[in-house]
Structures are given as structure tokens and as C-alpha cells.
């Protein structure tokens, strides 16, 4: 008898199915096939690295990997949370790989990255939530390829004292933490997280280092209203967040949170203009926008926007 395959999302196994809806024309992408994509994939496998591009089933993977850009996911491939939207595997987490920071630096050097995004699973089992591992990864990249700018996309470090300080003191160029959705939907969409804890994290980064760029993103199409998105923007600006991303939620499997609706491109443009009016240095808003999509180009835009704001 064949062994029963291990479930990727055991906590969702008994949930009722939500039908997968047909995507509209404006959100369809081509399957990744380029030689550069295959080479990036081989490099990640050779170095034993995980990428959120693969684990979260990002629709932009073909485009990004063809350009030798990948968002590296550290701290293993298994998350201790069970968010209703996320395709990353959940369960008992992996042991920390002490060689992972060096391997991430090696990948950045081999790909010749000008900008790298480092994210992770949630590690509620670790005393510092994995903050020291983030710091070591930043340090290794700085040592091996100092010209590479670094963006981190961290978990919320809920109930992890000094974790934020550890990461900020390591000196990333951009600190990103996603709110993901409006507070009314947190219990259903992001049950292990707390909205105001995430806001406090972003504000704390600015308290420690006011010059560090901060960034946050949400998905739409989960059932939020435009008024709720507007209030969320106000909350982010009160926390002095510089850059906001807005993208369409795509349902990974029948067991995940359903898509409430596919938001048309015109509404994304409306939200972008609304965010710009509220004072963000940069707003990226489109159906296929994701946290690390075009991150390198966006970092250059952030720097230019700040200089323009300062009149330089």
C-alpha cells in the first residue's frame, strides 16, 4: 500500500471547499519557460534555498526569475502560522540551517543582484522569531557583495521582545512588513496575527532609525471595502510608512479563503491615486502587484522620491 502523502496544509483539510473562480483576462500570466528561469531555479536547488516565489505560488515567478530576481525565504519552508490566504506549508518547522545565511549571500553574488529581498516563514517556536538569523543573513551579504541593497520582509515578531531592534540594527535598506488585509478581516484571513501589533512594528522601525525606508502591502478581493482600505492607508501613514503595495488576492487551493471578487484595473488606479494623496512616497497598485515585484526598481524610485521631498 502506498504511503499517504503528507498534507501541505493539515489545518485546512476538513474545511469545506471554496470553488476556484476563473481568472479574468487582465490577471492571467504565461507559464515560466525561459532559460534564465531554469538557471535561477537550478541555483536555488544547488544552494538548498527556499523562495517565496515558489512556496507562495507567485504569479510573477516567470518574469522575475527570467531577470535573475528571486525573493529568498529563510528560516525553513514550514510556517508555524495557518493564514487562510497563504500557500506556504504549515506544521512542525524545520531545524535552522546554520549555513543558510552564507548560501543566501552566495546566491546574491552568483546572480549579480543589485537588490535582494529576504523574507521568511513565521517561527513562533524560536525565542527571537528568527531575528538573529535575519541579521546574520544581512551581515553575510554585506561582506560578500557590499554593493547589493537589501530589503527584508519580516514576520510580525508577535511577543518576541527586541526582535525588531535586532533586524533594524543589522542595517537593511528597506524594512517591509505586510498588513495583508483590513482589520475587520483579520480573524478569518490572518487569525494568528494582530493588526495593531503589525502597525506598531512598522512604527517601531522608524523610531529606531527614522531614515530607514518602510514598506507594507495588502491584498484586495477578500471582502474589504474602499473605505476600509482608505482607513488602513491612514493608519500606515500615521506609522510613517513610506511605500505601500496593493495587489489582487488569488486563491491557491479550494481549501483556502475564497476570492470575494476580482478587482478591475481601474479600481487599482483609484487606490493608487488615493494613497499618493495621503502622502506615501510610493504606491504600487495593480492586479499583479506583489511585495517584492520590481523591488529593485522601486527602491530607486523611493530614494528619488525622498530626495525630491527634501528638495535636493
TrEMBL record:
GO terms for biological process: protein lipoylation. Residues 1-23 are annotated as: Disordered. Keywords: 4Fe-4S, Cytoplasm, Iron, Iron-sulfur, Metal-binding, S-adenosyl-L-methionine, Transferase. GO terms for cellular component: cytoplasm. CDD domains: Radical_SAM. InterPro entries: Aldolase_TIM, Elp3/MiaA/NifB-like_rSAM, LIAS_N, Lipoyl_synth, rSAM, rSAM_sf. It is found in: Cytoplasm. Gene3D superfamilies: Aldolase class I. Its cofactor is [4Fe-4S] cluster. Its EC number is 2.8.1.8. GO terms for molecular function: 4 iron, 4 sulfur cluster binding; lipoate synthase activity; metal ion binding. Binds 2 [4Fe-4S] clusters per subunit. One cluster is coordinated with 3 cysteines and an exchangeable S-adenosyl-L-methionine. It is an enzyme of class 2 (transferase). Residues 65-281 form the Radical SAM core domain. Belongs to the radical SAM superfamily. Lipoyl synthase family. This is Lipoyl synthase.
Amino acid at each position: 500500500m502506498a504511503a499517504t502523502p503528507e498534507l501541505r496544509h493539515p489545518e485546512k483539510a476538513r474545511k469545506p471547499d471554496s470553488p476556484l473562480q476563473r481568472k479574468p483576462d487582465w490577471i492571467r500570466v504565461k507559464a515560466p519557460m525561459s532559460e534564465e528561469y531554469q538557471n535561477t531555479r537550478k541555483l536555488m536547488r544547488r544552494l538548498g534555498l527556499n523562495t517565496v516565489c515558489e512556496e507562495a505560488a507567485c504569479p510573477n515567478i516567470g518574469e522575475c526569475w527570467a531577470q535573475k530576481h528571486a525573493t529568498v525565504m529563510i528560516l525553513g519552508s514550514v510556517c508555524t502560522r495557518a493564514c487562510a490566504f497563504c500557500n506556504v506549508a504549515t506544521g512542525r518547522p524545520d531545524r535552522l540551517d546554520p549555513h543558510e545565511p552564507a548560501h543566501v549571500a552566495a546566491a546574491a553574488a552568483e546572480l549579480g543582484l543589485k537588490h535582494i529581498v529576504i523574507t521568511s516563514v513565521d517561527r513562533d517556536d524560536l525565542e527571537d522569531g528568527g531575528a538573529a538569523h535575519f541579521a546574520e543573513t544581512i551581515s553575510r551579504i554585506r561582506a560578500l557583495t557590499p554593493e547589493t541593497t537589501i530589503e527584508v520582509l519580516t514576520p510580525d515578531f508577535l511577543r518576541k521582545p527586541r526582535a525588531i531592534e535586532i533586524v533594524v540594527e543589522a542595517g537593511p535598506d528597506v524594512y517591509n512588513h505586510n498588513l495583508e488585509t483590513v482589520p475587520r478581516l483579520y480573524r478569518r484571513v490572518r487569525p494568528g496575527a494582530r493588526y495593531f501589533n503589525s502597525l506598531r512594528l512598522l512604527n517601531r522601525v522608524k523610531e529606531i532609525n527614522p531614515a530607514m525606508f518602510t514598506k507594507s502591502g495588502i491584498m484586495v478581493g477578500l471582502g474589504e471595502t474602499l473605505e476600509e482600505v482608505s482607513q488602513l492607508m491612514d493608519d500606515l501613514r500615521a506609522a510613517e510608512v513610506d511605500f505601500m503595495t496593493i495587489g489582487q488576492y488569488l486563491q491557491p487551493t479550494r481549501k483556502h479563503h475564497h476570492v470575494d471578487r476580482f478587482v478591475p484595473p481601474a479600481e487599482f488606479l483609484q487606490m493608487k491615486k488615493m494613497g499618493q494623496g495621503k502622502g506615501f512616497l510610493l504606491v504600487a497598485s495593480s492586479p499583479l502587484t506583489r511585495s517584492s515585484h520590481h523591488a529593485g526598481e522601486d527602491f530607486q524610485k523611493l530614494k528619488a522620491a525622498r530626495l525630491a521631498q527634501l528638495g535636493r
